[in-house]
Design brief:
The structure is a homotetramer.
Chain A: H1 12-15, H2 18-23, H3 26-46, H4 54-59, H5 68-78, H6 82-92, H7 107-143, E1 148-153, E2 156-162, H8 163-179, H9 181-188, H10 207-218, H11 232-258, E3 266-267, H12 287-308, H13 320-325, H14 328-348, E4 350-351, H15 353-360, H16 369-380, H17 382-399, H18 403-409, H19 411-414, H20 419-423, H21 429-453
Chain lengths: 459, 459, 459, 459
């Protein structure tokens, strides 16, 4: 298994994408740290603090030049992998350049900036998947704009709507999360450069200028003041990822239920061999929903860790910063797997309109009880109409007759129910018509947000 | 105690403000539900669906007209307090208006919109407190822009900076949370009106128009589609409140440590009788920090609940929605108490510049080891200089001599250390000068964000 | 609403019992603190440290003698309500006894011991409810020991079992939580008495003897060493309560689904007016399941807070201890409401055996696919048999024929399926017979655990 | 990095032990699944259900015979790695044995029982480390039984105690967690065997007998009823691990603070190169405390996930079970790293008794204020004595004089303070004497619990 299933050969492919795994691999980490140091060298060279030759010399060292287990062994001593990394780079640099390497910076500058570079690559992957998911769900909502379907509250049949409406709700939920991504990137894709205690004192009066140039070199924002111990960026990122997974989990909750045997209105896309069982040959388990729901469950816990880490003592805390490492990369991993499955669902969900129609009729007209009540309210009063329908519903349940029949024939109830009221009350058309404009509004909103998603920066 | 100390006569005043308590009182809840129903009546009257007289009739019923325990008893049956509330209003309305009351709406519309109205009032309180806290901390940062002070990493003395710089970091952390409040309000202060399954089918083709008018009546945004089961608004609000408390907790962590006996650089504002002990007459406990830190600890847990609630089944879930009620109001309560204490701290923090200066000298020059190392790097190489200083630091610790002395007199080390390098290395002035521009940047940022805070809507 | 719905007149009755509310009321808190001080006085009198008259004098002060809001106002200053409480008692005591009051103790001793006394009362309520729930569910399992019913995995029909078996699983889950309660009580119902820093130094060499006598007076355990900053007792209590709610939530998850419209195998007990809707007169929402599920969601978050509070600095922390107050009483409140609803469900759950039987047949024999596969394995090999049934299941889904028919008539498949194998494969009797002994084992286990529950101490 | 730092070559060695990593490796997972299947074959052979040759044939397949990435790819389809594992084993078995393989079992039986076997190995590692930590901390407590030291509450000097007392508190905290391990093992080291829906229907009337034999073969407990969807075992395990880490975090919190520059009473064990900084050559960061504190922060979040997973639908849930995989193994990994560092600390903590003594005197006698107040109480009354000392403490702070001096010379205060009262009040001996018996009690408790720890089963 490995400690995290995301990192396991056996389980990893189920829970995270290969692309996201590559972003957070040990090798990618080393590459990001090298990129950070090279950018620092370029920035400092621009300000005359280090030789121009330093940056190319750093860039010439590839991520494969490092002995990862050796660095791991030394991390046990140093408490942070950046220290053995810095030493290893120093040994690889020409002697005359070595004194200028890492000038003015501290371990956290490397670690945090490298992480931000990884986050940028990760956000780009997420944006791409989000766009695809929204595209397909929008299409599905449009297609089923008028496919009647049961609306359910508290697990009970409530009133009719359309399947396109349901999909539109899912898609708006996902889109509303997506909409926040560009501004999240603006805030969080920020370079970290502060030196030992944040003031870049080792650079004399050139600290702010180097910090600006450094951020520019990497295409990142520059912070007004060092964020070594201001961790809202990480907490906000984590919360956003969990909210995104929550939006996907809302959809997966519905899919799993609609695909359940008794409901049968949906099936996950058919992939040969998918969703089988070692014991039950007939099973087609909702694997995508399972992955999305489990990701959401695991995700929210990591957010608590990131929030916790905000109470960071002084210029660098003993514990709170390290705790983030246990939470943030896994959130990206979980999100990647969740989106991968959402793409699968949005692409190939099997919609059974016929079964939806049958389920509408399954309660012998009770699904339209609120319509009838509303029609009776003007004459009977709202409360009395409501009570009358409550009684009628009870008789439907015990007698097996339909609501229309009960209301027409029950000696007690029928008095108060003019026949013309019943004539059209059990037709789902008004419900379908009422759902349609919301689908249209949703599609507009999704199109607008997909447009905005293009602002997510590329790595 | 009551189940939550926020609601306790004994403990409540310590943990939440009276103003916030009023916003989330049972009475305020009823008032918000009435306000929602009146707005619905006005909106529907504008579209000709209900008589004009309905809204004033609702408005005429005050929140004190309800028997709260009676509603509570019926909530046990209904599972939501809005149902007995609706019944109670129906009984109080003139018979001819009753059939039009609550037209097209469902319980969740009332409950969620009422909550949003309470949130608007709560956000306004928070914005006011945030503005005050930022104002005072900005002032404090300016005042101590050049007050030298120890920078600490991992609990150890690291390098000098200024107390103004530390305060600027706190304030930027709080300001960065504050900056997001206006856009959070835009997204979350959204009316909820969807009827039984979200489509407002009971209003025929006037659903979207009524929804827009309703939102307008209340000064709230209108959603593109019903958000009955799209709960990102609540999760995002909770995450934001927890992040705010995290930013305050960063400050409180530092304050508690700086006010500890051995450090002694700060004291919480002197209030007669505050921070005493039943056993130890000399104690002055950091009560404000205690409240802020405990609020942060409790807050992050509630966020997990709100994230959890996002996996809301279909058109209304059995459990997930109710779970929010256990989390969101408490987050506002905790935030109010946290901000109240932050205001107290920002107003009257006792700063002991003299002690700060003494603490800089407490390590016999080790605080300047990185400065010396940086000066030696060009001649010795970065790595060798670093190692030399590591050795020297060891001797300082065992010998009791100062770092300057060790470097000047140690037979082994002094060879490599030119005297001129030591001359000025132990002067905190460069560290103070390096900190200053960051304070200025921070002050600009805070001023900019305070300006933006004005966009937070008033209730 | 109040900050916590548990404390609300509108919502509290839905979410917590009145009995539990009384245990955690402000008044009960004062009463517990008085009881603690009186016990301390008795213990110290036994060892000759204070006059015998002190304890009766304290006992004579009733909890109603205190001005709660006045104490609340002073709590803002002191940071803990025990300090104004101590002062108020001092003023009420005869002058000659006052110097002896609270001798050697500190605020946390009062607060924690009072809390433990409240916990004892709360545990007794929980034990009583647990016993009732187990009694009724055992009865229900016995009654439906042979009622055939669908087993479901991943939301899909899997294979038949009995409804009694399902109930037995629920009950064992609840019983396994219950089993741990007596030992939890042993560990957690421990007196706290340590004085300022835990050593009871103010009592000279009589510290340990007083601590033992004090615990004895209250019927509590004595700790080997002060637990002021050893908070596992609270964390373990919280985890246990959440696990209990988890066991109830497992049951509620199943109930809500089995009571859903399409499944229809259960209904929550019929209580007139229960589970209605303001808009939909036919609704019968699963209110009990809703309460239990929402309690579980909220509960787990509080556990994180209690775990967090374990990292308590030195002899008393600034924040971590206070954070517990936001979590522990609410967990008891949530558990009380959850158990209340579980009692309701266990008492009156409506079981629809006929519908269960019909659902078994709903998949045209697919529910028995694993039986057929197992019968074919000896001749075909396990893997080939499995694949054959996978293919047959696909044809059942597309053709509408039953599995028996497909296996008998499909030209490709029928070759490998001897007719005698199909003869009895679709009879649920073997599944019913297989379930029965597990129900019996479960009933024995439940009976054994109910016996053990009697060891829970009474307040 | 990998998604979890526990799995990273760069960071893993810092956060988890190699031994624990081996327990949770993919290879160990495969080995545990094979062991499970072989035990099932032996149990079924005992009951005449499968040939005797099956078990040896399974045992002959080593864990290295599997293509892990190939299984990973198929896990994406199946949703659980046990399905491709079962297929792979089937292909490796002799044709005549294949039909009998995995008889009556389901995927979750393999996965859960394999996990339980891994847990047993993990618990044994933890028990060994706990024993070592308790041994060393007991020794340290004994050694410093009479080393005077400051007691601190709310970060403030409170009253004196001994360092041995502090260590005894840490050790009792850890021991109390340890004490629960044997009974936790009893409950959680339970075999899982239920077949498709828990009833082992595929084994006819031999289900319970096979389940018992199977458990016996593995040295595990047998459950009264299938625990496929009763997940308290996992939640309880997770809560226990987090509580253990909480107990260690209490110690690490104290160590980090006592090792801070201003306090200086402790240093982490000296290991060359440990705790350095890339920028600050003089730094000796508390790496062990950092690891322990970050593990605790991350751990508590995972508990929430495990609690969440308890609401498992029916006979196997879609999501909740998979979510556990993201939480439980990481908790073991975090615990291993935490204990590894605790062993390091308990072995080599550098105690600076001299500095402890100096810190006692740092507040000019205020540390003894409660002693003086207690001595004055009989004559002045408790409250007046308290107030007098509060005033005196204020003068000490402003004047720089010692408390003894103030009380002797202050015109206002000295009247009420007889000289003989001051004579011995500032001697720490009574505080030392008061602490000693608690240390002894703690040592007895620890010895008793270490004895009990031997009951933890070996793998």
């Amino acid at each position: 298994m490995t400690f995290s299933p995301l990192d396991s050969a056996l389980l990893g492919p189920l829970f995270a994408t290969d692309a996201m795994r590559a972003v957070f691999s040990d090798r990618a980490r080393i590459a990001a740290m090298l990129r950070m140091e090279a950018a620092l060298a370029r920035a400092e060279a621009r300000l005359g603090l280090v030789p121009d030759a330093l940056a190319p010399a750093i860039a010439a060292i590839g991520p494969d030049a490092f002995d990862l287990p050796e660095i791991g062994d030394q991390t046990v001593l140093s408490g942070v992998p950046t220290i053995p990394f810095v030493k290893a780079v120093q040994q690889k640099l020409p002697k005359e350049l070595e004194p200028f390497f890492h000038k003015g910076a501290t371990t956290q500058d490397i670690a945090d900036t490298a992480l931000v570079l990884q986050m940028r690559a990760a956000f780009a992957l997420i944006a791409r998947d989000l766009d695809a998911v929204l595209d397909r769900f929008a299409e599905l909502a449009r297609e089923h704009r008028s496919t009647p379907c049961v609306g359910r509250t508290y697990g009970q049949h409530a009133a009719p709507l359309t399947f396109g409406y349901k999909v539109a709700v899912w898609a708006v939920g996902i889109a509303e999360a997506a909409e926040r991504l560009p501004s999240l990137c603006e805030r969080t894709l920020t370079a970290s450069l502060g030196g030992p205690v944040g003031t870049l004192a080792g650079l004399g009066d050139k600290g702010p200028a180097v910090a600006e140039a450094f951020a520019e070199e990497l295409g990142l924002a520059a912070a007004p003041i060092a964020w070594h111990s201001l961790r809202a960026r990480m907490a906000e990122t984590g919360a956003w990822l969990a909210i995104l997974m929550g939006a996907l989990a809302k959809m997966a909750t519905d899919v799993a239920h609609l695909a359940s045997t008794e409901v049968g209105e949906l099936a996950e896309p058919f992939v040969p061999g998918r969703g089988g069982s070692s014991a039950m040959p007939h099973k087609r388990n909702p694997v995508s929903a399972t992955v999305i729901l489990s990701a959401h469950m695991a995700a929210k816990a990591h957010v608590a860790t990131l929030l916790d880490a905000m109470a960071a003592a002084h210029e660098r805390p003993a514990g709170a910063w390290h705790a983030e490492w246990h939470a943030l990369p896994q959130l990206f991993g979980l999100a990647s797997g969740s989106l991968q499955e959402a793409r699968g669902l949005s692409d190939g969900l099997v919609v059974k309109a016929e079964r939806m129609r049958r389920n509408i009729d399954a309660t012998a007209g009770l699904l339209f009880a609120d319509v009838v009540a509303a029609r009776l309210a003007p004459s009977l009063g709202r409360e009395r109409a409501h009570r009358l329908l409550e009684q009628a519903a009870g008789r439907v349940r015990t007698s097996g007759s339909s609501l229309a029949e009960v209301l027409r024939t029950d000696p007690e109830l029928s008095r108060d129910v003019p026949a013309e009221i019943l004539a059209s009350a059990f037709d789902p058309t008004p419900a379908v018509d009422a759902a349609a404009p919301w689908v249209d509004r949703a599609l507009d909103e999704i199109a607008r947000i997909r447009e905005r998603l293009r602002a997510v920066p590329q790595p």
